[in-house]
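Thread: 1,3-dihydroxyacetonephosphate complex, take 2
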Amino acid sequence: MIAVIGAGAFGTALSISLARNGPVVLWARDAEHVEEMQATQENARRLPDVALPQAVTVSSDLTCLAEADIVLVSVPAQKLRAFLETHGPKLAGKPVVACCKGMERGTGLRPTQVISEHVADAVPAMLTGPSFAHDIARGLPTALTLACGSERIGEQLQARLTTPNIRLYRTTDVIGAELGGALKNVIAIACGAAIGAGLGESARAALMTRGFAELVKVAEAYGAKAETLAGLSGFGDLVLTCTSAQSRNFRFGQSIGAGETFDSGVTVEGAATAEALAEIAQDAGLDLPITRVVIGLVRDELNVREAMDMLLQRPLKEE
Ligand SMILES: NC(=O)C1=CN([C@@H]2O[C@H](COP(=O)(O)OP(=O)(O)OC[C@H]3O[C@@H](n4cnc5c(N)ncnc54)[C@H](OP(=O)(O)O)[C@@H]3O)[C@@H](O)[C@H]2O)C=CC1
Ligand SMILES: O=C(CO)COP(=O)(O)O
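Output below.
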């Protein structure tokens, strides 16, 4: 059986799709939330208007993990450590698939590194790529990356987690898959801010392209492979997130650009990841101009016009 930790939008969507292969248990920390989902067969708080199939059992009791041979963890990257500090030992020895996109503030660690710190004999893997929760839950076609350092376990996970509407490509480049997914969210905030401020589609294309160059610079410095970054988990997800108003990171940027408020309860991974990235970039001697302006925008230390001037007035260089 497959267990999914975290009944957010993504965990719920993955459970719905995986249930087409067999039984799934979806764990949520809040017993009241679980009761609501059981009563209505829907996760109205996080993924409204999609029915939970019978093959999904919703529970707030982690003893369900004993029966699971694969565990997907779908809590936000900044919340992963808190979950594992309490419950990590229950995952010992199992393949644990991180489904979150981010870099931890204060440590700069990737989700699979946080898992390895807290789960004994962990076999960490990563599921990432261009997909909105609602698309997956509605059965629309998607293609994602499954990254696992072990070729053998990666193949097993690829087979078990492929569903009728999720086609999985496999890689052993875990670093590349994780960093692509984390960093594209920062660039999506920049693109959203440009569009929200009315700077136009040419500005968005420039930010996506130079943002991708920034993503590649960081990820290669940490050992990622160029082909992973050019694939679904990097370029693919950058395109989706920077061009769709379904993206929360993009919408958050758009609200900054338009001078509007944004609901602080909405998960926006790119804001914390930009800060984490700046912390590690300084130590690694990396110059990340787009990340820098995103931090300025998020902290409200810059407006969009000042951010654009900062980017445009940098010394001229070769592409
Ligand atoms: N939504 C999407 O389209 C996609 C999301 N992702 C990634 O999935 C990850 C999760 O996002 P998403 O599901 O959308 O987020 P949501 O905001 O919808 O849900 C977050 C979930 O995490 C739970 N949670 C938070 N902290 C803890 C904790 N300490 N212990 C246990 N559970 C916790 C929340 O529980 P509670 O409700 O009790 O607060 C909630 O169920 C992110 O990294 C995101 O980038 C990836 C692809 C697509
Ligand atoms: O990662 C995602 C799409 O692949 C979801 O993006 P948001 O978190 O910006 O909504």
